[in-house]
Write a structure and sequence with these properties.
With 274 residues, the protein is of the alpha+beta class. The protein is 36% helix and 33% strand. The strands form two sheets. Strands 2-3-6-5-4-13 form a six-stranded antiparallel barrel. α2 crosses α3. The chain is elongated and about 100 Å long.
C-alpha cells in the first residue's frame, strides 16, 4: 500500500504541488479580502444545502413505499373502528342551547318520486319524535314524520308537500322554499319582492321563523333569478347544498321550547282568526 501511495505521488507530483499552492493562495486571498471570503462561504453553504436537499429527496423517495404501507394499515385500522362505531352506537345525542341533536344513519332514501321520504336508524328509544328537523353537515334535509321504537321516517326536502321558511343570508329577506323542479339538486324560493337586491350565488339559509328549524342552517345558493310577467315577486331557483344522492349520517334536531312556541302561535291564530 505504501509503495502504491509513493507511486501515485511520483506520478501526479506536479498536479498535487499545483493544487497545494492554489489552496494556499486562495486561503491567503480570502483572509485579506472580507467580501470575497463572505461570498465564497455563502456559495459553499448554498452548495451544501442543495446537496443535503437532494439527498433528502432521494431518501424520501426510496422510503415512499414504506410510508404508503403505513398509511394503508392506518386507513384499515380507522375503517375497522368506524364500522365498530356504526354497529355499537347507532346514534349519539348532545344539547346546544334550546336544541337537542341526535345523530343517526340513513338506511333508505328516495329522490325520484314526487313525495320523497327518508328512513333513519333512530327512533323513540333514542329521543326522536315527530316534527324534528333533519339536517346534515351540508345543510337542511327534512322533517321527521312517523316514529317507531328504533326507526323513523322523515319528509325529505325533495317532497312537493314540504315547505321551508328560508331567507337570503346577506339581507334577511325571507320567503317560502318548495321543491317543484323535479330535480334532486334544485328548489324554488318565492315571496321575495322585486325591490330586494339579490345576485347569483347569494346564500340561502333557514330563517328560524318556525319551531322546527334553527336559524342559519345552510339551504343552498341562488342559481337563477326569474321575474314572472306582471309579478312583484321573484321566482328564485336555488341549488341545494345537500347532495341527497349521498346521504349517510344526519342529525335530528329537537327544539325543547317547541311546545311553548306552538301554543303561543295557536293562541295567535284564535285571536286573529287566521
Amino acid at each position: 500500500m505504501l509503495q502504491g501511495l509513493t507511486r501515485f505521488i511520483r506520478t501526479y507530483y506536479t498536479f498535487l504541488l499545483f493544487l497545494f499552492l492554489e489552496i494556499i493562495g486562495l486561503t491567503l486571498f480570502l483572509n485579506q479580502h472580507a467580501y470575497q471570503r463572505f461570498a465564497f462561504l455563502n456559495s459553499s453553504n448554498q452548495l451544501t444545502a442543495s446537496l443535503y436537499d437532494g439527498f433528502r429527496g432521494i431518501t424520501l423517495y426510496l422510503d415512499l413505499n414504506h410510508s404508503n404501507q403505513i398509511l394503508v394499515q392506518e386507513n384499515l385500522r380507522l375503517h375497522k373502528q368506524l364500522n365498530d362505531v356504526k354497529i355499537r352506537t347507532p346514534y349519539q345525542s348532545y344539547q346546544h342551547g334550546d336544541f337537542k341533536f341526535v345523530s343517526a344513519r340513513v338506511i333508505n332514501n328516495s329522490i325520484h318520486k314526487r313525495r320523497n321520504m327518508i328512513t333513519i336508524h333512530a327512533g323513540r328509544n333514542d329521543g326522536v319524535r315527530p316534527d324534528m328537523a333533519v339536517i346534515s353537515p351540508a345543510g337542511v334535509v327534512g322533517v321527521t314524520y312517523a316514529v317507531s321504537a328504533n326507526y323513523c321516517t322523515a319528509v325529505s326536502l325533495l317532497n312537493e308537500q314540504f315547505k321551508l321558511s328560508a331567507k337570503i343570508k346577506k339581507n334577511g329577506y325571507f320567503g317560502s322554499l318548495t321543491w317543484n323542479t323535479g330535480h334532486y339538486q334544485d328548489a324554488t324560493l318565492t315571496e321575495i319582492p322585486t325591490h330586494v337586491n339579490i345576485e347569483l350565488g347569494d346564500t340561502i339559509v333557514s330563517s328560524g321563523y318556525s319551531s322546527i328549524f334553527p336559524e342559519g342552517y345552510m339551504v343552498g345558493r341562488i342559481e337563477e333569478i326569474i321575474l314572472p310577467p306582471g309579478s312583484n315577486f321573484y321566482d328564485i331557483k336555488v341549488r341545494l347544498a345537500v347532495d341527497f344522492k349521498s346521504l349517510d349520517y344526519v342529525y335530528l334536531v329537537d327544539n325543547r321550547n317547541k311546545i311553548e312556541l306552538n301554543g303561543l302561535q295557536e293562541m295567535e291564530k284564535e285571536v286573529f282568526h287566521d
